[in-house]
């Protein structure tokens, strides 16, 4: 059955994550791009959209395809939506619905009043909830009392779909805001990005068979999301307070969600981390290193990036000692935009091949509005 995935704001990163997670679930169907923000894939009945949503970090909603209409006529679309709502339940069921329109800003809005009139003419009980034209917020859909229908305009045809899974924004917010130790400087990576990077690194492998190490663990966000996925996590940081706080956060996640205990936390310099401290070689390194000052200036940006390049090169050299052959590194590099100037740690990117790493994915730019320092996500594999 065809399902539509509604991507987070970093479309290419979200799509890359979906492709990899689908492989993990044994889905071999090709992904098709419907719009820049929507992709479709045929899912076997054995795959639950809710199970997929619980793993993904960069997907907002999943919907099932209802109809592929060879028309863009608003009246015909409204009639078909009414038919779909009519078929969704028995005669005594009250239908509560919202509409989400995509690629239709240049067209007249679908009339919920017309749809209600068509349904009430069949003696059906109907309620429409007003939302933005783009659809309902996740929080409303999570209550399970309303059904969302999508209307997607595609040049000469229209796609209709129904939301069947939605990102659990309450849980994401809970892990982000309610964890016992928070630090705006040491723990800046968003949990959804952390989850996406873990999925990119784990790939099609069973997470339970994978050990993920974060050598710049900060407050432990990447490690927390690793536990949620089911990998074994290990972390280190040079900051004593951060390591202690990360330990608190991991124990909190274990208690809140019943996930397995983390393997190990330690105080180490990422450029000097040793196999003795780690124990056994790890399958993946997933990390966001220090990205430099959040507000660099044209006068100091070159020196900042030069210092970061030295640190990153030292780290990658050392990680070869603790990473399994064929193991992956999912990492964030800074991209600094000052006026028309865009700079990054290019010398690191250029040298990694000679250091024994092959680029597998990226760069995916993870943007934050008005921030001069953006994130570029890369995935590398240690050569055989």
Computed Rg:
23 Å
Low-confidence stretches: none
Strand order of the largest sheet: 2-3-1-4-8-7-5-6
| Helix coverage percent | 25-40%
Distance between the termini: 39 Å
Q: What is the count of structural domains?
A: 2
Major beta sheet, specifics? 8 strands, mixed
Mean pLDDT: 95
Task: Report the principal-axis shape.
Answer: elongated
Name the CATH superfamily assignment of the largest domain: Vaccinia Virus protein VP39
CATH architecture of the largest domain: 3-Layer(aba) Sandwich
Report the total helices: 12
- Strand percentage lies at 25-35%
Top keywords for this entry?
single chain, 384 residues, alpha/beta, Rossmann fold, 2 domains, eight-stranded mixed β-sheet, 12 helices, 16 strands
Quick rundown:
The protein is of the alpha/beta class and 384 residues long.
How is this structure best described in words?
It is a single chain. This protein has helices at 11-24, 49-55, 74-87, 112-120, 138-142, 169-177, 191-202, 221-229, 240-257, 275-278, 301-319, 346-351, and strands spanning 2-7, 32-35, 38-42, 59-69, 95-102, 126-128, 147-154, 157-166, 211-214, 232-237, 264-267, 282-287, 323-338, 341-344, 357-366, 373-382. It is of the alpha/beta class. Strand 13 (323-338) and strand 14 form a beta hairpin. Helix 1 crosses helix 7 (191-202), helix 7 packs across helix 8 (221-229) and helix 8 runs parallel beside helix 9 (240-257). It is elongated.
Layout: helices, strands, pairs:
Blueprint: E1 2-7, H1 11-24, E2 32-35, E3 38-42, H2 49-55, E4 59-69, H3 74-87, E5 95-102, H4 112-120, E6 126-128, H5 138-142, E7 147-154, E8 157-166, H6 169-177, H7 191-202, E9 211-214, H8 221-229, E10 232-237, H9 240-257, E11 264-267, H10 275-278, E12 282-287, H11 301-319, E13 323-338, E14 341-344, H12 346-351, E15 357-366, E16 373-382
Parallel strand pairs: 5-6, 5-7, 9-10, 9-12, 10-11, 12-13
Antiparallel strand pairs: 1-3, 1-4, 2-3, 4-8, 7-8, 13-14, 13-16, 15-16
Helix pairs in contact: 1-7, 3-4, 7-8, 8-9
């Amino acid at each position: 059955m065809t399902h539509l995935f509604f991507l987070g704001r970093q479309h290419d990163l979200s799509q890359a994550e979906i492709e990899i997670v689908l492989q993990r679930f044994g889905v071999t169907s090709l992904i098709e791009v419907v719009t820049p923000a929507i992709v479709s894939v045929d899912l076997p009945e054995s795959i639950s959209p809710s199970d997929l949503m619980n793993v993904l970090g960069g997907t907002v909603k999943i919907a099932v395809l209802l109809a592929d209409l060879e028309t863009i006529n608003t009246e015909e679309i409204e009639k078909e939506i009414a038919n779909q709502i009519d078929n969704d339940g028995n005669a005594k069921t009250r239908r509560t619905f919202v509409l989400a329109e995509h690629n239709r800003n240049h067209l007249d809005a679908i009339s919920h009043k017309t749809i209600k009139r068509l349904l009430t003419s069949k003696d059906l009980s109907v309620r429409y909830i007003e939302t933005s034209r783009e659809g309902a917020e996740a929080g409303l859909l999570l209550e399970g009392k309303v059904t969302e229908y999508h209307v997607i305009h595609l040049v000469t045809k229209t796609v209709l779909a129904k939301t069947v899974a939605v990102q659990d924004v309450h849980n994401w917010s809970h892990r982000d805001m309610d964890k016992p130790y928070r630090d705006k400087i040491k723990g800046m990576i968003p949990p959804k990005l952390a989850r996406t990077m873990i999925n990119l690194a784990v790939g099609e492998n069973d997470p339970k068979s994978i050990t993920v190490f974060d050598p710049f663990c900060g407050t432990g966000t990447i490690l927390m999301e690793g536990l949620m996925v089911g990998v074994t996590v290990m972390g280190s940081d040079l900051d004593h307070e951060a390591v202690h706080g990360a330990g608190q956060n991991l124990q909190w996640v274990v208690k809140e969600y019943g996930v397995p205990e983390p393997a190990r936390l330690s105080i180490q310099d990422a450029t000097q981390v040793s196999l003795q401290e780690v124990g056994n070689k790890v399958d993946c390194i997933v990390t966001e290193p220090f990205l430099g000052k959040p507000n660099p200036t044209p006068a100091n940006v070159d020196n900042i990036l030069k210092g970061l390049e030295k640190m990153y090169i030292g780290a990658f050299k050392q990680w070869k000692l603790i990473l399994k052959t064929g193991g992956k590194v999912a990492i964030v590099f800074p991209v600094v935009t000052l006026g028309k100037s865009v700079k990054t740690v290019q010398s690191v990117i250029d040298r990694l091949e000679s250091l024994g790493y092959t680029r597998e994915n990226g760069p995916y730019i993870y943007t934050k509005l008005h921030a001069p320092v953006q994130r570029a996500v890369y995935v590398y594999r240690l050569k055989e």
